Amino acid sequence: MPHQFLRKLERLGSLSPTDKEALVALLRRPLINLPKGSDLIRIGDIASSIRVLLSGWGLRYKFLPDGRRQILSLVLPADICEMNVFSSLQMDHSIIAAAPTVLAEISREDLQALMARKPAIRNYFLRDLQLTIGLLQEAIVNIGQRTALERMANLFCELHARLDLIGSAPDMQFEFPLVQADLAAATGLSTVHVNRTLQELRHLQLITLSGKQLRILDVAGLRALALFNPDLVRLTGPSQTSADRFQLDWSIVG
Amino acid sequence: MPHQFLRKLERLGSLSPTDKEALVALLRRPLINLPKGSDLIRIGDIASSIRVLLSGWGLRYKFLPDGRRQILSLVLPADICEMNVFSSLQMDHSIIAAAPTVLAEISREDLQALMARKPAIRNYFLRDLQLTIGLLQEAIVNIGQRTALERMANLFCELHARLDLIGSAPDMQFEFPLVQADLAAATGLSTVHVNRTLQELRHLQLITLSGKQLRILDVAGLRALALFNPDLVRLTGPSQTSADRFQLDWSIVG
DNA sequence: CGCGTTCTTGAGGATTGTCAATGGAAGTGG
DNA sequence: CCACTTCCATTGACAATCCTCAAGAACGCG
Question: B131 and B158: one domain?
């Protein structure tokens, strides 16, 4: 049932069938259904359990005291809501459901016990955390260095890559629950400018976005425009061969 | 000798004297001296050891293929260079020494063995990783939402808080090895605009910066201007009481 | 002292933001 | 099912922030 989670498990970790069994068994029990707009995590929470998002999207965000909101990252299916799986601190940010969302829950104790018994599972969660950190770093580069057009394009490239990983972007198309104000909060732009940037991406024949459906018309073109970092897709960090490929891919752009 | 590292150990973890002994013993051996401009980490590296920065500053950065550079975070004394202490992946970014730098090294195996024996030490590294993640998230908010003036102010606030933690900002003053081009790469601004923003901060009587010395003249004023998030300072995440304080502190600003 | 790096300044322009208004889509309640 | 409300997308006009280019001054290093 947690199809996408299984897919990510296979890509990220090298789990034995029994390991996967054990993990999924813990997840299966009481699924949590939350409507759009629910808080998945509130700032200040101390999570006693670890939750995996099975369907829907979450927005991980922070506020400035005057109301400015910045989205830190998007929580997609197979992602873990709690970033502090290993150190149980209080949450320093919130997560809200951008769409109706289903979560699976594991108690911290059960997970800890499982990780102690099965190093491969432990490694999976560590690996996943590392991936999340990589995404945060990419977000900094994205917002700090890219123009509005590149920034938006890059966001779509990242989303596509991540969804493709879990098999949720068939036909270069996927459901896209964010409103333009969310895109603005994610990219550090104004909603008006997001609107105009989207129009430009459409005009360039790179994407289609309407009715909560995003379709990428030209992946290569979009990635070139975005100066997309393909290392994100391979989730292993830049391997020796991929470091070379990195050079190659990017030299085309420049 | 690694005075600042000891200080951070005390603040972040609750290590027993013997734990601290054991950790520092591993660190003491062969210190690494690197001149300004050295690569502490190159993208693609697979680190076989974990290194703690004892003195100097490191710049953690990424390039876009057309040469744009974004600094992800600053590596200060007592910080760990390798963010993948627990999952030994390849580095997806580089670190360069912004000043003459001294590193202490622990082999991965030794550290792993030590962490297996001493849970408190393991927890320290997990805690430190979590802190680093928090800083990355704050950087996203900073670049995404704050104006140039606020952004620069916030950067100085963060630096001061982090240096103060390790006792390296006596008298609200500390050595500041970055050039304006570095500040630009850290904040996503142009060097020219960094220059003008610095002038404004000086004119507002908030800071003094010359001869590689940064002095904060008015911490409260600087933090108010920056909309500084004080949770960074308390490294525990927002506690129930600090969540309240969070409200209080920030309402003054708004 | 001389040279390269860094800092500073000016002018002009491009990108992006703000304000305000309109129209459509979606959801609500009767 | 329709009227009503609310949210969301879109557009225009204008303004502000920030960037680029370019040149000169100051600083620091050998």
Answer: no
